[in-house]
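This entry is passed on directly below:
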Amino acid sequence: MSERTFHWAVIGPGSIAHRFADAVAQLDGCRLHAVCGRDAHRAQQFAERWSQRGEPAVLAHTDPAAVMSDPAVDGVYVATPHGQHYEYVLAALQAGKAVLCEKSLVPNQEMGRRLVEASRTHRAFLMEAVWTRFLPLYQDLAAWLREGRLGALRGMQSSFCFPAPYDPDSRIFSPALAGGALLDVGIYNLTATRWVLQHALGGVPPLVDLAVKARLAPTGVDAGLAVTLDFGDGLTSQFQCAIDTFAPNTMHILGSAGAIVLPETFWEATRAQWLPAHGNGNLAGETIARPFEINGFENEIRETMRCARAGAIESPVVPHAETLAVLGWMDRIRALAGVRSPFDEQFPPPR
C-alpha cells in the first residue's frame, strides 16, 4: 500500500468511536471515509459530525457489507460491543481490510484463534486496540523497568472499577453482548501485568497458580472480580475489576529497590512516580508527566497504518500471540469465577 491517504471506516458509532474519529481528524495521512451503525439516524449524525470542510462527506451505512465491499476503505475500526466483534472483524479480514478492533478482541480464546487464522489466510492486518501500550508515558516506564530501577520485581497491584446502573440489556450486563467486568475493563489489568513482566523480566513466566473471587450480576456475568496471578518465587499480580464498584484505579509496581506508582486511571496514564527505597524513610523520587499528543489513540492508529502499508499482518507492539495469551488467561479466570457465556458453547476450544 502506498503513502496515499489512508481511508478509515468505523463500525459502531458509539462514544469510543468519537474518540477514534477525533484522532483520525487530527492526524496526517488519513481520513474518515465511512461509518456503519445499526441505527441509521445515529450513523448519519456521526458522519455529519466528522465530515471535514473541503473533504468528501463521510458516508453513513447500516449494512456492513457496504463497508467491506468499498474499495476505497483501507482500514476498519470495530467499536461495537464485544459480542459483535467476531462477525465484523472476520468480514473485514475476508475483504482484505486492515482491522483495528477494540478490546477485548473477542469473548474467548478460540474465537481469537480463528480470527488470527483468518488474518494469516487473507494476509490482512489485525490488531487489538490496546492503546495503553502506545502511550508516551509507558515508553518512559519501559525504560525504568529495563534499567532495573525497581531492583528485583516483587509484584503488581491494580484496580479498574466503576459503578454502573444495573441494566440487564446493556452491553456490560448482558451475556449475549459478552458483558462482564473482566472483558470490559479487567483486560487492562491483565495486559498491564504482562507488559510489566515483559519489560522487567524479558518475558512472561508461566502461571504457577491462579486465585479468583467473583461476585456475579443477576444476569450471570461477572460484576466484580478479585484475582491473584502467581508466577512463583513470591512474584504476584493482584487486581480488582468491577462494574458495580468505585475504586481509585491506580497501579503499583513493586520491587526490592523501590516502586512505580501510576496514581490514577493507569490504563490512560499521563503521570507516574518512581519511589526509591531508602532506609531513612525518605521516599522522594522522580515524577514524570507525558501528556497525550491528541487524545491517546493517535499512536495505535499510526501503527495500524504503518503495518498495513508495509504489508504486515500484525504489530510487534500488540502481536497476535499476545492477544491470544490474554484471552487464554481470561478464559481461565471466567471458568474459576463460574461465568459461562453463549460464546463458549458456540466456539468451544479445540479438543
Observations:
- The mean pLDDT is 96.
